[in-house]
Write a structure and sequence with these properties.
- With about 100 residues, the chain is α+β, with helices and mostly antiparallel strands.
- Helix content is about 40%, strand content about 20%.
- It has helices spanning about 5-15, 35-55, 80-95; strands at about 20, 25-30, 60, 65-70.
- It starts with 5 loop residues before the first helix and ends in an 8-residue tail after the last helix.
């Protein structure tokens, strides 16, 4: 996949709830859960999606908050694959019992 132009990446990220651009190469999404166990269960869903897509995020777990960071190494920045991954993670979050993200 080719690296997205900055404007296209910014527009795509703006349409993804809970996601923001970190710099030229990275985007980040955060998800907050009612309990630690629910946060860890979500990480399991993220892992399954990442394996299926063969595109793996950096994952941070801070008690009840999960932070995901995405980039496409081979392209040197953000690609459509990152946007697709973020959409899938948002769908997994929305299907969980969590009340909101942030």
């Amino acid at each position: 996949m080719e690296k997205m132009p900055v404007e296209a990446a910014n527009e795509a990220i703006a349409s993804l709830a809970g996601w923001s651009r970190q710099d030229e190469k990275w985007m980040q999404g955060s998800y907050r859960f009612p309990t630690f166990i629910e946060a860890i269960a979500f990480v399991g869903k993220v892992a399954a999606i990442a394996e299926e897509m063969n595109h793996h995020p950096f994952i941070g777990i801070d008690y009840k908050k999960v932070t995901l960071r995405l980039t496409t190494w081979h392209a040197g920045g953000l690609t459509e694959l990152d946007m697709q991954s973020a959409r899938r993670y948002n769908e997994a979050f929305e299907s969980s019992s969590a009340p909101g993200n942030g």
